[in-house]
Amino acid sequence: MSSRKAHKTDEAEKTSRADATKQTRDIKGVKRVERTSNRSSLPANALPLELHLAQAAYMRVINERARKKKSQQNSNQTNQKQRGICYYCNEKAVVYLRYADRHLCKRHFNRLVEKRFSRALREQGLKAKQTVVLAVSGGKDSLAMMLMFKKLLAKIPLNLIAVSVDEGIAGYRDESVARARAFAKELAIPHYTYSFKDLVGKSLDEIMANREGEAACGYCGVFRRQILNDKAKALGADWVVIGHNLDDAVETIFMNLLRNEPSRIVRFFEPLVQDERFVPRLRPNMWIPEKEMALYALLNDVPFENAECPYAKYSIRYYVRAMINRLEDRYPGAKFRIMRSMLSMVERMKRRKAGERSGGDKNRATGNGNPTNATTLEDELARLKTCKICGMPSNSDVCMFCKLLEEIGEDPYGYVKRRGLKGRRDA
Ligand code: SF4
Ligand code: ZN
Questions:
Q1: How far is Cα 218 from Cα 253, in angstroms, rounded to an integer?
Q2: What is the CATH number of the domain that holds 409?
Q3: Of 161, 243, 252, 299, most Cβ neighbours within 10 A?
Q4: How many distinct helices (H) and strands (E) make up the chain?
Q5: Residue 390 domain-assigned?
Q6: How does residue 380 score in pLDDT terms, banded at 50, 70 and 90?
Q7: Measured in angstroms, how far is the CA atom of residue 12 from the centroid of ligand 1?
Q8: In-domain check, residue 89
Q9: Residue 195 lies in a domain
Q10: Looking at the 3D structure of the chain, how many domains does it have?
Q11: SS3 37
């Protein structure tokens, strides 16, 4: 740089500094420095006023466009809703899901149900090439579940076997088992039927003949569970799959609350039982509401039996169901929320217990120094005895199954002899 140019630059710098500040003295003669130029009060990267205005105008246009787009989308959705059009496509909707405020067409509704089904199976631990016993009663839940398993076979190789338990309820179960058998045949899934009469010695109707006003479900549930478990074992199953839907699951939770049996709630969410005498259970329908299971079955031509068990109205489940349905009517999505809350409570209980087992601070774990009542199935199994008749895990010397068999005048040892038999395949 030439000396003249350098001199000019120095001058300019001095002038600008002089512009920017002015030294004064106050009345006490102390030096003060005051800013005198507006230009120098702006930050170094400040834009000129014109650019500010242009930028603000530009942002106004962008925001206006975004607002219009959003309101267009909203009005499209409102139109779609009013016209009953699917939320995802332009097809006519077959269902309106209140809890999600969405209409869905058949294709998207099927996709939603099947997605929930396969996600539940994945989360609960199903693996390829496993042997799966499907408990099929002939109702909508179990037959729709069988259809979804058949579809799943295209993606995952599985060994499927369908099993029906005929409790012996005249005019009800015989019809539904016939439907289960026929549908299994149509889907080319081997099917077995086991009856109370053959295995425990009496049909449910015979058991209830002298028990006017008593609930049949107590006998029915215990006998059916045991038969399913024993026959699944005889068939070499890795899993027994139960068709319980979301409503059934929420009802079971409430029933266990009413009976003060929290460990049963924990057990409901723990399919992997580490005891070789139990075949673990899968519940792939547990995130699908009952009405949606029924609609799925109807839309996919599943030939289910719609009649209700004549003993159902005497059970506690009947009242709990009515209460939960009223809740759902008033607060759409209540069933999902109850299930999610319960699941996260069980998870916390399990973590707390795991902390205690690994020598964690119990006072901190319970929050107040009181011992928690939380339990896991592992703890329960550790405390369980073995039934001296059938050899199954039990809270007392004789299990509930054997006690009930004795109560109805049947020989538990007779059942023990028959339980390991695979049975006759009927489809
Ligand atoms: Fe058995 Fe009760 Fe179900 Fe009827 S309602 S099939 S008696 S559990
Ligand atoms: Zn027993």
A1: 16
A2: 3.40.50.620
A3: 243
A4: 17, 11
A5: yes
A6: low
A7: 99
A8: no
A9: yes
A10: 1
A11: coil
